[in-house]
Amino acid sequence: MDLAIDLGTANTVIWAPNRGIVVNEPSFLALRHARNNGTTVEAFGREAKRMLGMTPEGMQVIPPMRDGVIADFELAEKMLAHFIGMARQQNYGVRPRVVIGVPSEITSVEKNAIRDTAYRAKAREVHLVYEALAAAIGAGLPVSENKGSMIIDIGGGTTDVAVIVAGDIHEKKAVKVAGNAMDDAVTQYMKRNHNLLIGEQTAERVKINAGSAYALDQEREIEIKGRHALEHLPRTVLVNTTEIREALSECVSAIISAVRLVFEKTDPELLGDISDTGIRLAGGGSLLKGFDLRLRHELDDVRVEYADDPLSAVVLGVGKLLSDPKLLAKVALS
């Protein structure tokens, strides 16, 4: 049995041949700490994330991934084993061959950690590929052709920018600014400018519903509920969408700077190809309202398009590699 895995900071997505996406869960665990029984895992994924900010005494919600790599090896192993078990269904006794997408500037130590975690989670064979390359494949870019293609994959912990030619990455840049950093920026803005403390899930909802990278056709006010930082009482604050855009501006600028840096290092001939094919966007963070418009504005009207399924581009690309052993052998990391 084969499995394609996008082991992301925000979500873990698993794809299986002939079945499609079989697991799509937040990368969280809920732990219960007991004096006599030690620590046990109470919940995984969506069920665990629902507890964020609402855990009773003795409970803790933890993301074992940070910035696209493993922050807690033991918990990552438990989480991955659980999700692989969900994906295996009736083939539970069969150890799967897995291909996992990883950030483009991952270190050798981090690569070994992900491999070891997958093997301990009962994989029989493990291959790693760059998420940027997988996202480009999943987005339908002509990565095997002798022409340049550009992908920007904005995940939960990391943004990958890459130029790909003939099945290889020509230039790349990864920055640890993505969806989670945007959530944190909203949280810090509300505390700094409105003395309002909000939780992670509230910040994420504000980003999705009111966040933008470019001026909206119709700006509006939204209500944000939290706790007053000084009075420690429940408080509702009216905030304009222009403020949320201001809160996110530093994150957006950091991503655009990474794109410019890749442009500066890319051969002029390949830039001509990119002008023809355009830039493709993938990852949940790319869905920030107006991000494509902001890129076009900043990059002199270079065509910018979204992948057909931005949220699943990485895992769909990894899935295509599962069925193309020749290309997988070429792009798999040593």
Question: Over the alpha carbons, how many angstroms does the gyration radius reach?
Answer: 21 Å
Number of individual domains: 2
Rounded mean pLDDT is 92
What is the CA-CA span between the terminal residues? 22 Å
Strand order of the largest sheet: 3-2-1-9-10
Structural class: alpha+beta
Query: What count of helical segments does DSSP give?
Result: 11
Reported CATH architecture of the largest domain: 2-Layer Sandwich
Number of strand segments: 18
As residue ranges, the low-confidence spans are: none
Strand content: 25-35%
CATH superfamily of the largest domain: ATPase, nucleotide binding domain
Helix-strand pattern? EEEEEHEEEHEHEHEEEHEHEEHHEHEHH
CATH class of the largest domain, named: Alpha Beta
As a percent range, the share of helical residues equals 25-40%
Write the CATH fold name of the largest domain: Nucleotidyltransferase, domain 5
Main pleated sheet: 5 strands, mixed
Net shape:
flat
Folded structure, characterized:
39% of the residues lie in helices and 29% in strands. The protein is built from eleven helices and 18 strands. It has helices at residues 45-49, 73-88, 108-120, 131-138, 179-194, 200-210, 241-265, 268-277, 291-298, 313-322, 325-331; strands at 2-7, 11-16, 20-26, 29-34, 38-44, 59-62, 65-66, 69-70, 97-102, 125-130, 149-154, 159-165, 168-175, 196-197, 221-228, 234-240, 279-282, 304-306. The chain is flat, with a radius of gyration of 21 Å. α3 (108-120) links the parallel β9 (97-102) and β10 (125-130). The protein has 334 residues and is an alpha+beta fold. The protein has a five-stranded mixed β-sheet, sandwiched between helices.
